[in-house]
Each structure stands twice: as structure tokens, then as C-alpha cells.
Prior knowledge:
Elements: E1 7-9, E2 15-17, E3 21-22, H1 30-41, E4 46-48, H2 56-65, E5 74-79, H3 86-100, E6 105-110, H4 118-130, E7 134-140, H5 144-151, E8 160-164, H6 172-181, E9 184-188, H7 200-209, H8 213-223, E10 227-228, H9 235-240, H10 251-258
Parallel strand pairs: 3-4, 4-5, 5-6, 6-7, 7-8, 8-9, 9-10
Antiparallel strand pairs: 1-2
Helix pairs in contact: 1-2, 2-3, 3-4, 7-8
Active site: 53 (proton donor)
Site (Lowers pKa of active site Tyr): 78
GO molecular function: oxidoreductase activity, acting on the CH-OH group of donors, NAD or NADP as acceptor
Amino acid sequence: MENLQSTITLNNGVRMPLVGLGVYKAEDGEEVVDAVKTALESGYRSIDTAAFYFNEEGVGKAIAESGISRDEIFLTTKVWNDDHGYDKTLAAFEESRRKLGVETIDLYLIHWPVTGKFKETWRALEKLYHEGKVRAIGVSNFLVHHLEDLLEEAEVVPAVNQIEYHPWLTQPELHEYCKDKGIQLEAWSPLTRGRKFDDPRLMKLAEKYGKTPAQILLRWDLQNGVVTIPKSVTPSRIKQNTELFDFELTGEELAVLNNCNEGLRFGPHPDTFV
């Protein structure tokens, strides 16, 4: 964890940056293009989008115009709920690839575990992986029981599980299960949508280290071995979120934040979201 280009090795040997830019709710066109370009200029080498974000074209445009070699950028996108199923997933992938303007996608995820459908969807992801169209495949918002169900028939173990993760939702059982199976955890909404920035425990650490609450939360992710993808379209915040490598939380401070856990979700619950 030396700098923004630091990576972690996934279970198939692919290296993934520890920090990336999330572009959920970034409007397609100028807004997302500018955000991605700012991130790449600031040293980010991982961009996370999804079909459901409706901004893949802008992300692809920014990458193409950045002047940075494609093989230096780790690009993630996801298949949406309406496109579950073997054939529909393959078609959705081709549409995402067309919009992004790339030959290969680095990480392709199932966005949500749609009951009764995600196994067929996973079969399609395995096909794409075996054909070399994606470098790694994974899931998002899968709980332990979803993963257990998937692994009963999967040929390929997911490389990543992207979940809502922050000190108020640490999901320790899921975290341990993923560690045991070699599945890398990745945090979405790592900044709690800003709703916990005034927590006294967080503010105390921010004051001690001369950092923002956001920077403390992102550093906590990294020290817990979790890849993090904060989202922002504000240039100053995109750059601020890179300044994570000149301080280190102590074991005691990590424990203080771990003990904030109260099962608090700011997004949907995977068992009830359709």
C-alpha cells in the first residue's frame, strides 16, 4: 500500500488496484468524462461503472481521450438485473463492450443476486472469461447464502464480491467467508454517502491525522484488506481521495472503527432488492 497504483492479486493472478473511482450517478456526457479524466490525471488506474449507471459511453470516451494506455487501466462494469440469464447476459456484455469502446473488460460483475437467475448468468460470465473477453469475473451484493448457492455449481470461483461496506456495516461473517474462499472484498458506498462524517470517533481520527473523514474511511478500508471505489464528480474530492498513503491507523484505531458496526445500510438489502 505505497501509492495509488498499488494493487492486490486476485484469485486468478490478475492484479487489481486497491483504489478506484466509482461513477454511480455520474451523468453520461461531460460530467462523467470530466470525472474519469480528472481521476486518471490524478493517478487513479481503476474505474468502476455498470450498465445500470447509463454512463458507459462517457467512461469509454474519457479512457480513449486520456492518453493513458488501455492496459494500464483496470475497467469494471456490471450486468443489470433485467439482463440475467445466459443469452441475455452475453448480449448485455456485448452492449457494454460496445459502449465502452474496448475489446476486453478487466472485471465483469453480476450487479445483484436475482433469485433463480444468477446461476445461469454466472455460466455466461464463465464463458466470457474462458474466451478471454474478460480478465476476471465476480459478483456484487452477494451474501454468504448467495455465494454458497453459486459455488455449488460454479466452475470459476468469483474473483471479487463488491458490497456496501463501511464501519457501520462491516458484515464480518461475509468478510470471513470471502477470505476463506479467496474472494476479494470491494467496498461500494465506503463514505456512507457522507452521512456519518460527523461521528465523533471518526472526527477525532480525522483531527489527529490532519485528514478528512473520507480519507480516514478509505484508509480503514485498505488496512482491512478491502478494495475501495469512492465516487465523486468533484475534482477536489477526487484528488483528496488519493491522499491515503502518508499515514497509517493503529490497530487500536482500526478496532474503534470496527466497533461502529450496527448493520446500518444506506443502500438496498440484497435479499429484498429486485
